[in-house]
Amino acid sequence: MQQADATEKVIIGVDPGTQIMGYGVISVKGQQITLVQYGVIHLSKYTTHELKLKKIFERISQLITDYLPDEMAIEDPFYGKNPQSMLKLGRAQGVAMAAALSRDIPIVEYSPKKVKQSVTGSGSASKEQVAYMLEKILNMELSKEFMDATDGIAIAICHHYHANSPASSSTSSSKKSKKGGWGAFVSENPERVK
Fold first, then answer.
1. pLDDT string in tens for the chain (194-residue length)
2. Residue 21: HSE in the Cβ half-sphere, 13 Å Cα cutoff
3. Is 151 a residue of the active site?
4. Could you confirm whether 5 is annotated as catalytic?
5. Which of 1, 75, 148, 190 is 20 to 30 A from 182, alpha carbon to alpha carbon?
6. How much is the pTM?
7. Is there a domain that residue 188 lies in?
8. Count of domains in the chain?
9. Which of 65, 5, 56, 57 is nearest to 30 (CA)?
10. Active-site residue, selected from the candidate residues 15, 71, 109, 151
11. CATH no. for residue 117?
């Protein structure tokens, strides 16, 4: 029983956005996944991009304080046709990552296709198909009001599946450098961070 407690892990999944940002917090004990919290951060009411970034940082920081996640999983911005939108989305992702990095929380990024494939088996699944599979995985009904939050939950579950795969556990030393991303960069280059 104590061994199961030792393997407990809290993961926050974040789906970055500039209008709506979805998040999901899961707890994993052994292979049992429990949904702790999920929701959305509505950003469209803020008038400037800078104010939106500030709110993202504050809200993600508050979620970290409230739920003390061990790891953050975040969706990679996908490439779109509008470079300005991509730039803004990348900034939103960066601010969410900065909130985790300020608390020394490791971050792993996943592509939207990888997240969908991990949860549904299909990299081209719809938002509704992802939500349906999450309800089956979690054995609970999810509020349709927070449909954007399902992506955050899916990202956290995707991370759990991949962090516990035989391939990742057999190379635990390379996992850190491979998955470290910004966290690894910061720890290896403290003089470049101000």
1. 444 444 789 999 999 999 999 999 999 998 899 999 999 999 999 999 999 999 999 999 999 999 999 999 999 877 667 888 888 899 999 999 999 999 999 999 999 999 999 999 999 999 899 999 999 999 999 987 788 899 999 999 999 999 865 544 433 333 333 345 555 555 665 665 55
2. 30
3. no
4. no
5. 148
6. 0.81
7. no
8. 1
9. 5
10. 15
11. 3.30.420.10
Give the active site residue among 71, 109, 148, 151.
148
Options 8, 50, 71, 75, the catalytic residue: 75
Q: For residues 164 and 97, give the distance between their C-alpha atoms in angstroms, rounded to a whole number.
A: 22
Q: What are the Cα distances from residue 44, in Å, to 17, 47, 49, 154, 177?
A: 10, 8, 10, 23, 36
Q: Is residue 174 part of a domain?
A: no
Give the residue numbers spanning the domain of 97: 8-167
Q: What's the pLDDT score for residue 186?
A: 58
**Residues of each annotated binding site:** 15, 75, 148
Helices (runs of H) and strands (runs of E) counted in the chain = 9, 5
d(CA 109, CA 148): 18
Q: Is residue 34 part of a domain?
A: yes
The answer as to whether 154 is a domain residue is: yes
Helix pair 83-101, 181-188: axis angle to 10 deg: 60
